[in-house]
Amino acid sequence: MANAPIYHQPLKLERYLIKHEYVAPHPMCCSDAESVTMQEILELADEECTKMWKDLSLGYTECRGHPLLLEEIARLHGVSAEDILVAAPQEGIYIAMKCLVELLDKNFQIVRPHVIVTYPGYQSLYENVKAMGCDVSYWTAKLCDGIGWRFDLNELEELVAKNDTKILVVNFPHNPTGFVPTSDQWERILEICKSRKIFLFSDEMYRLTDNDGSDPLSSACAVYENAITLFGLSKTFALPGLRIGWVVTPNKTLMALMEQTKDYISICSSAPSEILSIIALRNKDWLINRTRTIIVENLKLLGKFFKKHPHLFEWYPPSASTTGFLRVKGWLLKLGEGGAMGFCEEVRAATGVLLASASLFDFDDQYVRVGFARKSIPQALAALEEFIKSRESKNQSEGN
């Protein structure tokens, strides 16, 4: 008897944002940076890109991506253009996961591979492999007093040894906590995979957002032949509307499978988006510095705000990423239906400030994701301050 099908569960965070993000006046949970305008991008175009834009034909494009786009991506990661497949980031996750599972089945007769995933995280990173019949374990971040969020590498090694793991899925800089391993820790993760021939899926969507002057980690695809790197223009480059990302791997067998799988999904990318992406990558320093500047300024404001309310919040500013995971405390957890979600719903209804509860990440509902790469953070904090003042005044008058 055939195994019963396993279906994808709704993406909780996406369903929540679809309902609220475009109507809430003060979004404070979003993971993308302040979006760049079309005019800003076109003003950055060199002579070659300007001509390509003016002469652009709105026909189909090459499956793997525009040759000039592949060149720019290859330069960014230090790899060959042959190792790259352009795809929308969410599409890239699905394609890579499907092809990893298919490759293990066809080439190694491993029907139900064990997968370890960093957790909490973007639901797609674990929901896809669960729906494909994999056994999934979670490498869970811990909030350490006085230190912040951490992933314990000893715990990872124990999970690998106990389960004969075939795929490791990581996301660094990490969404939602903002954690980034040190270069030594990253080397240890890579060595674990290399020594046990584990396929590594590395979600690097928040790469190059380092705000403390440190160098970014090496891209997994540039240092390990069985790694797949996911990156794109939605976060650091502030261009989510282009829907351009890419998966990169030196593994030729895996790349061939991913190309074939893309034929069943989008086939190719948008022609205008590819030209705009070439312009963006040729001006990557300007775009990266723009995002970093917004992040640094907002982190100063957030640090000052949360320091003012230590009885209500516990905050550790990340050294990279566009998001952090804030612990909510005290009477805030008693609002509405209770927990962080109750707090988020009360704040949204009263002020229009949109935060994302940890429950949307299938995690302990005493945390909320804070996004700090948009220019609207000052207004959101002002509204949140008024909310706290109003509720604390009410609590005092009622003797609570």
In brief:
This protein is of the alpha/beta class and 400 residues long.
Keywords:
400 residues; 4-stranded antiparallel beta sheet; single chain; alpha/beta; 7-stranded mixed beta sheet; 15 strands; 42% helix; 15% strand; globular
Overview of the structural elements:
- It is a single chain.
- This protein has 13 helices and 15 strands.
- The protein is globular.
- Helix 4 packs parallel to helix 10, helix 5 packs across helix 9 and helix 11 packs parallel to helix 13.
- Strand 7, helix 8 and strand 8 form a beta-alpha-beta unit.
- The strands form 4 sheets. Strands 2-10-9-8-7-3-4 form a 7-stranded mixed sheet, sandwiched between helices. The chain has a 4-stranded antiparallel sheet with strand order 11-12-15-14, with helices on one face. Strands 1-13 form a two-stranded parallel sheet.
- The protein is of the alpha/beta class.
Secondary structure blueprint with pairings:
Blueprint: H1 12-20, E1 26-27, H2 38-44, H3 47-54, H4 67-77, E2 84-87, H5 89-108, E3 114-119, H6 124-131, E4 135-140, E5 142-144, E6 148-150, H7 153-163, E7 167-171, H8 183-196, E8 199-203, E9 227-232, E10 245-248, H9 252-262, H10 271-282, H11 284-308, E11 313-314, E12 323-328, H12 339-351, E13 353-354, E14 356-357, E15 367-371, H13 377-397
Parallel strand pairs: 1-13, 3-4, 3-7, 7-8, 8-9
Antiparallel strand pairs: 2-10, 5-6, 9-10, 11-12, 12-15, 14-15
